[in-house]
């Protein structure tokens, strides 16, 4: 019953939208840790995932989002206090 429910919800969205929601939820989940390094690593990881996902599964502007996250992630990580 549960897999059918999840499938019926996910059929309306592409993989880019699902990954974007995942990125937002993991970032919100990492905020209570108050670690800028964790946020930076999360940003880098999702940037790589967006870049490596085949373009046939999602629109091409998610590739540019991934490239942007790959640039912003190390900046956030390096500027962390430690």
Automatic annotation (TrEMBL):
Record domain DUF8006: where: 2-81
Sorted UniProt keywords: Membrane, Transmembrane, Transmembrane helix
Keyword ATP-binding listed: no
Signal peptide extent: none
Record's keyword annotation contains Heme: no
Residue ranges crossing the lipid bilayer per the database entry: 13-31, 38-55, 61-80
Protein name: DUF8006 domain-containing protein
Species this chain originates from: Halohasta litorea
């Amino acid at each position: 019953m549960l897999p059918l429910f999840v499938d019926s919800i996910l059929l309306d969205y592409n993989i880019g939208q699902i990954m974007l929601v995942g990125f937002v939820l993991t970032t919100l989940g990492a905020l209570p840790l108050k670690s800028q390094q964790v946020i930076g690593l999360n940003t880098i990881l999702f940037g790589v995932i967006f870049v490596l996902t085949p373009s046939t599964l999602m629109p091409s502007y998610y590739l540019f989002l991934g490239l942007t996250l790959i640039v912003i992630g190390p900046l956030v990580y390096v500027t962390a206090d430690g």
